[in-house]
Amino acid sequence: MTADSKQAVGLGPCPLCGREMIEGPSVDRHHWVPRKEGGDDWDHLHRICHKKLHSLFTERELALLYNSAEAARSHPEVAKFVKWVRRQPVEWNGRHERPRRR
Q1: Contacts with 78 (C-beta within 8 Å, 6 or more apart), sequence order
Q2: Phi/psi at 27 (nearest 5 deg)?
Q3: Continuous segment of H or E residues that includes residue 10
Q4: 3-state class of 43 per DSSP?
Q5: What is the pTM of this model?
Q6: Rounded distance between C-alpha atoms, residue 68 and residue 15, angstroms
Q7: H-run or E-run covering 48
């Protein structure tokens, strides 16, 4: 990207919430199966979506039960969060409870 080109780079839709992702501080990498549990596949997610997953689930739960966007969205708390976050700006990071102990 040149100095004259100030356009943000789009990363496509967030696998969890479906909103467009823009490269920068509002986006994180998420391992659907945590590396600690042997996973190596990852996707970009909005940082707020990533924080929400880790505030709700342990790494073991992510590895065994919520190891895809579809599986995570099936959880009632995640579904409620997705409905809410879709009304927020894509760059918004927000705050969440501390992640559960791993």
Answers
A1: 16, 52, 53, 56, 66, 72
A2: -125, 140
A3: strand 10-13
A4: strand
A5: 0.80
A6: 9
A7: helix 47-56
